[in-house]
Fold this sequence. Notes:
Blueprint: H1 3-20, H2 26-45, H3 52-77, H4 86-117, H5 121-145, H6 151-182, H7 199-240
Helix pairs in contact: 1-2, 1-6, 2-3, 3-4, 4-5, 5-6, 6-7
Amino acid sequence: MGFGYLFLGYLLSFVLYMTVNSLGFGGLALLVGYATMLWGVWQLHYYHRAFAWAKWLLLPMLATALLETLQNLNTLLLWGLPLEIPIFETVMDWTSLALITVFHFALLFAIRALATEVGLLHIATAAVRNALFVALYVLLSAVAKMPFVSEEIRGYLALPLILVDLVWIFCNLFLFISCMKNICPAGDEEVAERRSRFEWINRIQDTYEKNRQKSVEHTTKQTEEFLRRRKERKERKNRKK
């Protein structure tokens, strides 16, 4: 359906980027990652029109990734292009943050709409939860970027920013895995689950599904126990009357 490409592109854009950006290849990771996500979201748009916003938002994001790639090459190859002007970098930094924020809200809204339509409420709820994590990260990041904020406050915000950043990235990755395993095109409901050609993706899927199933079973048991105790209390009250 496209969730596989979305997962892979997200992995490149937000996980690989954190590891290669210090080496000067962050822009390239974003460029390939955004292009892969665009292909995945383009396919998902055929199944639900709510993915239209996410699809079109990836186009300006590709432009910012291309610009960052040129900046990286300019630094590595000493081209001498005027791409490192402070005011220009500030504008691009805020533009990139705004695009990433709106894209995530659009994408998570679309996943929620699709999951609700097919009756997968746990996926719809997870999409809303992830949107809250994104909002928290953006709020902290925006405060840290404000010019009037002191370096001391930025130092206090550094660790919370890293933690929230990791939480919402990996929560989204697990959400995409859940979508891959549970949402399929109409008519494919009885088709056996297709395994990925990459064994490490299969291991992540299996671990996530195992933990999700344990959570569902635990919640079910708690609900049954609560209903049983409530029924017993009602019966005792009725006997006393």
